[in-house]
Amino acid sequence: MTRRILIVGAGPAGTLLACCLARRGFQVDVYERRPDPRLLDEEESRSINLGLSARGIKALDDIGLMDTLWPLTVPMRGRAIHLPGGGAPFQPYGAHEGEILHSVLRRDLITTLIDHAEAQPGVSFHFRHRLVDLDREAAAVHLAEEGTGAALTVRGDAVIGADGAFSQVRARMQHGLRVDHHQEFLEWGYKELTIPADDGSARTRLEALHVWPGEDALIVAHPNRDNSLTGTLFLPVERFEEIADPEEFFRARFPDAIGLMPHLAKEYAEHPVGHLVSIRTSPWHYRDRVALIGDACHAVYPFYGQGMNASLEDCTVLDRCLGAHPDDLGRAFAEYQRLRKPHTDVLDELSKQNFVELRDRLRSPFHLARKKADLLLARLLPGRWVPLYTMISHTTTPYADALARARRQDAILRWAGVATGAVALAAVRRSTRKGGPRC
Amino acid sequence: MTRRILIVGAGPAGTLLACCLARRGFQVDVYERRPDPRLLDEEESRSINLGLSARGIKALDDIGLMDTLWPLTVPMRGRAIHLPGGGAPFQPYGAHEGEILHSVLRRDLITTLIDHAEAQPGVSFHFRHRLVDLDREAAAVHLAEEGTGAALTVRGDAVIGADGAFSQVRARMQHGLRVDHHQEFLEWGYKELTIPADDGSARTRLEALHVWPGEDALIVAHPNRDNSLTGTLFLPVERFEEIADPEEFFRARFPDAIGLMPHLAKEYAEHPVGHLVSIRTSPWHYRDRVALIGDACHAVYPFYGQGMNASLEDCTVLDRCLGAHPDDLGRAFAEYQRLRKPHTDVLDELSKQNFVELRDRLRSPFHLARKKADLLLARLLPGRWVPLYTMISHTTTPYADALARARRQDAILRWAGVATGAVALAAVRRSTRKGGPRC
Ligand SMILES: Cc1cc2nc3c(=O)[nH]c(=O)nc-3n(C[C@H](O)[C@H](O)[C@H](O)COP(=O)(O)OP(=O)(O)OC[C@H]3O[C@@H](n4cnc5c(N)ncnc54)[C@H](O)[C@@H]3O)c2cc1C
Ligand SMILES: Cc1cc2nc3c(=O)[nH]c(=O)nc-3n(C[C@H](O)[C@H](O)[C@H](O)COP(=O)(O)OP(=O)(O)OC[C@H]3O[C@@H](n4cnc5c(N)ncnc54)[C@H](O)[C@@H]3O)c2cc1C
């Protein structure tokens, strides 16, 4: 008999998992409280964009979707760091061509995934259906239809909570259990601001991730296919209200950004402040009845650009565990948590550190020297010296393995002494410039 | 007009706070889901005992209760460490006479506090009343009477959640706020076992805290006034079920304990397994309407014997903040969290470390040497060298200040080198033995 899985939440994790489960022959029902994104017009579905990198790409490629998605993305070949004194030096990503990020609209990604899932037998999406309660013993969800409030109860063989950081499936699944839970809100929040195209052409270098670093405020911007960019302004939460005149604030802090954002004042007034939460939690599953995926089991601060990528990668890991234990959902779920959680825990740590890096260190000469040494070593020792950022963003090396390796590399760098290292490297560089094959 | 404060929970924190608030002229109502402990007979109110130390003593003395309480306590002058090979060397606490802990039955402590609070004008206790909901805007509690289920709503000027680690006041107060929450269950749980008096006299040294350390199981026992001791067996949670024959297990692991526990098999079968949780959380208050105290805002593992002591100390800090801001509960609550939370956060860290110490290190020769060096330095440099354990257990130095000082001392010890230190100390010791006034 075909087993039926109920997925709550049609974000990146829920929609990709629907595709994977359908391929394994499950009947899949996805319940999403928001309307079908395909039925909304442009204005209604104003979408954020996200940086898609190696892990997400691999997971999407696994179900054969990248060919459809590539045309919907814009490559980001490196970072453009906007300095307060003016100028925006461009740092290419990684040491090798091809190590680039890709900006994609959340709406485009989700829509592609929904279309693909729906085309497979046994998959149905139920939009405007909100989970209001869960019976974890029965794998049953209680839903309310948005608008009408009509109530509905559906029972499956298992329920997957893909309902994001404030997962109701998680809350109800874990109720009364021995739960480890670590939740933190960052003191900083965010607001979206647009860099619109100027008469059809881009106002700044398009194929880059733009960063305006700062201790008290920072901006990150990703490009869109229509030559606009979407900026995200990060500030200590209470600052948003204190700033009476955003243009004046920008003139003082981000002088070169103000020319790029003609709608700054209006958007600043109208766009809500988003909050940033980090969540590590356990357990991720309840027997063979309920499991969590994506932000529902590991929300991270967005400063490594990995939240969605990790959520997509989760699907691959869970899918593999279902393959290894085809007749035992409980074992598959347990194995999935065992294999996956150590890595998303590390991602949480790294995402917190990268906030500090963006905020405090991006402009520090020591940090820049360190980054340069890293990139240089990567060129000199291809495949043997891989900077942490590269491993996280441009490879699918599991997060914890990447960190362990970076720590070994760090120890070597520290041991050699940064200063001695720099001198030696300069010498090596000169000699390889002269005769070496690689530079 | 007299302001009315509603306290939920009549544990150590709630009952002491009732006394403090009454002294400040508040009207106080305390709601407790359990029956009045004064109405239960011995058997019904089987009570755990707790180690009362300097902080708790200070807080209780502040409201003039120690004279009533002293006769209800048993001094613990040091630790008796039971070694697997037999023998139980006694380590006195601290370097100075008077640095001792006091064992008290929870029931005796609470009863004394309730009697004292009730004797003051404006204080009422409402037993068998369980909080079922909280309206944080209105400072109103919704209660159900145990047994009858009768519902009751009471409104005050503010509500204090003193309802322990799984505080419902906390859950409802924090709902939807930007909450930082760190909760962990220890992999180990506990079970109480009695060392009854033998025909009226104690079976082992009474005035000591007994410890049977171990990597895979440990026991801690406190004395009672009737010459019995109450032991707490700590084990990895799943082990409790696996042990089919507790006597056999004890014979192998705690051979000298088996003779002390004639009811071992029966108690092992009948007593429930307790779980140990650590909680750090924020915020501790909601405007001027709701605040948390005791385990409700900082539950710690019991291995430093400080949970209740810290909860009692909270009352003193909150009371002082109410004194500083007599007309502004909101400021008093905010100030209380600002002053107090950094210290209970440190206690959480220390309590986790002390588990490792009890489990792994108590028997290690290096650790014993370090302890000895610490005690010796404390004797040689009275008031200037204070071991961490002494500062936590035998002083009221705020927890974080104690840790900071211990770290400075540690750095010195490390810097001097443990080995060199030991030699030098031995020399100093010999010379002070000969001519010094202190040893
Ligand atoms: C400012 C910002 C920038 C980011 N940038 C990046 C980036 O560049 N790269 C990257 O990889 N990640 C990024 N992320 C992280 C990324 O957005 C998330 O990790 C990702 O969206 C998680 O996917 P998900 O499917 O697990 O959860 P979500 O995307 O949160 O989806 C959950 C879905 O469940 C639905 N839902 C919730 N509750 C219910 C309910 N009760 N009933 C029914 N449905 C429900 C929601 O409506 C939603 O559709 C960023 C995040 C932020 C905040
Ligand atoms: C095994 C063990 C050993 C320990 N040993 C020590 C020790 O030696 N020294 C030490 O200092 N500490 C020790 N502790 C810690 C100590 O027990 C706690 O820190 C202390 O009891 C906390 O006091 P409290 O008043 O904040 O909460 P609690 O003691 O938990 O009291 C909370 C009260 O609220 C009531 N309540 C709960 N929910 C509701 C509701 N919904 N409605 C109404 N009432 C409610 C409960 O019935 C209870 O009476 C130990 C703990 C454990 C588990």
UniProtKB/TrEMBL annotation, chains A, B:
Q: Which GO biological process categories is it annotated with? A: anthranilate metabolic process; kynurenine metabolic process; L-tryptophan catabolic process; NAD+ biosynthetic process; quinolinate biosynthetic process
A GO MF annotation of the entry reads:
kynurenine 3-monooxygenase activity
**Protein name as annotated:** Kynurenine 3-monooxygenase
Q: Name one Pfam family in it.
A: FAD_binding_3
**Keywords, sorted A to Z:** FAD, Flavoprotein, Monooxygenase, NADP, Oxidoreductase, Pyridine nucleotide biosynthesis
Keyword Thylakoid attached: no
Q: Which organism is it from?
A: Streptosporangium minutum
Q: In which pathway does it act?
A: Cofactor biosynthesis; NAD(+) biosynthesis; quinolinate from L-kynurenine: step 1/3
InterPro entries per record: FAD-bd, FAD/NAD-bd_sf, Kynurenine_monooxygenase
Main EC class the enzyme belongs to:
oxidoreductase
Q: What is the annotated role of this protein in its UniProt record? A: Catalyzes the hydroxylation of L-kynurenine (L-Kyn) to form 3-hydroxy-L-kynurenine (L-3OHKyn). Required for synthesis of quinolinic acid.
Q: Per the record, what are the reactions this protein catalyses?
A: L-kynurenine + NADPH + O2 + H(+) = 3-hydroxy-L-kynurenine + NADP(+) + H2O
What family classification does the UniProt entry report for this protein? Belongs to the aromatic-ring hydroxylase family. KMO subfamily.
